[in-house]
Write the structure tokens for this entry.
Amino acid sequence: MNQPLEKTQREQKGLSLDDVPVFAFRTCHKALEARNGVALAQGTSETLLTRLENSLKTLDENGAIVGALPFHYDTQPDSLWAADMVVSTPDKCPQVVDAVANWTVREDPPAAQYAKAVSVALEYLNDNQDDPEALTKIVLARSIQAQCDQTIDLQNLFERLASDPSVNVFQVALPPRDQSARYMIGATPELLVSKTGGRISSHPLAGSAQRQGNLAHDSAVASQLSRSRKDRHEHAIVVEYILDVLAPWCKSLKRPDGMTLSSTRNMWHLGTWIEGVLRDPDVPVPVLAAALHPTPAVCGWPKKRAGDTITGLEPFKRDFFTGAVGWCEANGDGEWYITLRCAEITDKTARLYAGAGIVPGSDPWSEVAETGAKMGAMMGALNISNDISKFRDVK
């Protein structure tokens, strides 16, 4: 049953759901905003279809189910809303001001501890290679906790992130914690699954390299990434997984362009565009997202063993980081993206996240650098120093 938000949940420590949409999403082509949100009864992936079927029937012409799925969706409840959706053309010249603030920053874990965790993961990857269930990839994340001297301006942060036309900017309300309203906001490059009628698409990314300011150096980095045996192997694991999961749902499935390079302002990625035609065109898109989630791009492979290893090696709970965020219209169509390049915002606090795929051949300190680069866009938008070396242990 859908439940309206209690007043204590709507007015929390400087962040009010009366002022902030429960969901917002923007690309260079479209802008979506959902307000007047009514929270769906929370649940895990096991009850998703039943809850969706009940809620989709109640939506009016402009209604949608919006929200976020957590990383551990088999055990942790989601955050979904029935809301009024407004679709518009994005402002080409948004009002953005410089974020002037003082920050206190702490790494969680420190860089040296993260590098050690990568080394442990590599030992696991190199063990028992004759075992068909042996680990072949694991994704390890690290986090930065940043405390501001003033309440974080969500709208300005959203607009600053949207200044990069190559990413998909999102903002979604999360369940309150300690009576404080929470929002996840970020700029993800990765489409988990979209659905229009009976047609679906996915664009997995795996294998990354930091972009360079110098054009010649940047071109060399892109070329090196496209030839990297380690990164191509990492990417292939993800693509084959998505094809295997989607195949039973589809009459046809293809990857028309094969593996290609894609980029954001900060990073190069290996990506493969996947297209399919569903056997049942009425299946709601969040059900497909839940079936795919978590992919090896954010967890590893085999999924269960990688997930258990992540729990043992990461010193924090991922919560909604590396989950999925998106929307579903009354007819079941919509788009869901992996929750990447993001921060959880609570009043004056921002927790930033980034992860890296670890496969045989990975270098621990290179993964430290990669996760630092991936946090660069969010750090810049918050006006936190992009020199992440300031916040890491001496090597």
Observations:
- The longest strand covers residues 137-148.
- Residues 1-17, 389-395 have pLDDT under 50 and may be disordered.
